[in-house]
Amino acid sequence: MDRQAPIGAEEVARAEQILQKYKVGKAALDQRLVDNELWFRMGHWKNYQNPMMEGKPQPSSGWLFNSIANKHADAMDNYPAPNVLPRAPDDEQTARVLSSVLPVVLEQADYEQVYSDTWWRKLKQGTGVKGVFWDPEQRGGVGEITVRPMNLLMLYWEPGVDDIQASPNFFSLSLEDTDQLTERWPQLEGHSTSALEVPHYLHDGGLDTNGKSVVVDWYYKKRNAEGRRVLHYCKFCNGVVLYASENDPEYAGRGFYDHGQYPFVFDPLFVEEDSPAGFGYIDVMKECQTAIDRMNHAMDENVLLSSKQRYVLSDAAGVNEEELADFSRDIVHVVGRLGDDSFRPLQTTGLQGNSLSYRNSRIEELKEISGNRDMTQGGTAGGVTAASAIAALQEAGSKLSRDMLKSAYRAFAKECYLIMDLMRQFYDEERIFRIIGETGRSEFVHFSGAALRAQALPGVGGVELAAGSPFLTSWSARRRNQRSAASPRMRRQKSATSWGSLPRGTRTRHWRRWK
Q: pTM value?
């Protein structure tokens, strides 16, 4: 690496200091994420250091897990699909091709699995995060777009911002094998000691981090020589720069991604102020679940004590205790005479009806809190037998699910915009996609990024009037058009995109942006 490169050891050291500051501001959230994972696995009793519970059973009922599993099932029943609409009549063909090509790109990225994993994390942790990247090593070096579910525990941003795009820096951490890293990047030779520590979830078998190094993907925004704000990217490990877009002549001036945004999409379940991360159902239901588990423990103890015969025995009773405790013996030897004062059964009071009623009321409370009533799972209340009445109750009871699905659709639209921006930037060569045509048969279409890039419009009298850029949706691209509009060469944006993730009807949105 050139010593005069813009990003070197000094810049990496400053980035590590910023990262440490971000980690301090996110410490409470990281601890909550670790605790919620234990709750989801019904291992939350590990967090309670109650000496009265030592050596005794620790029951964990699955009411909370059942609620989250049902929410995830609702999300998978409403898997989204993109629908691209044109902004101008001459964009109709491109929009039609994009509507067919985008599902293929998502399928190649295994998006259904990404969608499922992100929803589990959204429900458990309160925030689902997806990353949309360009992987230059895929397809034999041709490159392809990848969509990955991100671990919120390994992401860091400036504390106090409610949108990651407003953070001056963004960090994505990963734990990788040091030997494999050294084999790929020889400059890591002799730098095997990692100064960074990362939080991790608690596992029954433990997590061995020996021979591992923390790899940091550092994204940051800065203005280039033209005064335009661009996105840059640096990958470093153990203080050594592995790659930096500012050191790459191809991206030094234009930025790493042309869209100029952090390639991450946050989808919070319940929004928190001054934070892009929200809170989830476990945070809401854990107190009620704790009360249910404590009552279950007390009731289990009572049932065990009631079902086992115990005795109060005086030292002067003369009873052979070993024979008395051995239920296989028919005869128990006694020395002397027995009386009520020296030997009598120990009676345990059984469960009272009000105790069972209170436990059931807490279970109903948890169902109400999570919106996971019996009606939403196909059950019926007493007296409701008409099919239309049952359907009406189920439809009314699913409004919470519809509300959280709408936020997922908004996040899906942002992801598709990022995918289109990456197509515009990196799809230099024409690609062939197999799609399902209007007749239901397989068809092959040709597509490249040229269909999304700026196109010169015909001039009048030798003067170029405008240049159009189909589907130019990114903020940085719109800003470039606004600046260029002040010059004699006028530009306009032609195309609009509408995304319909529509399992329940035909809700569509049509944005028009003209310049």
A: 0.77
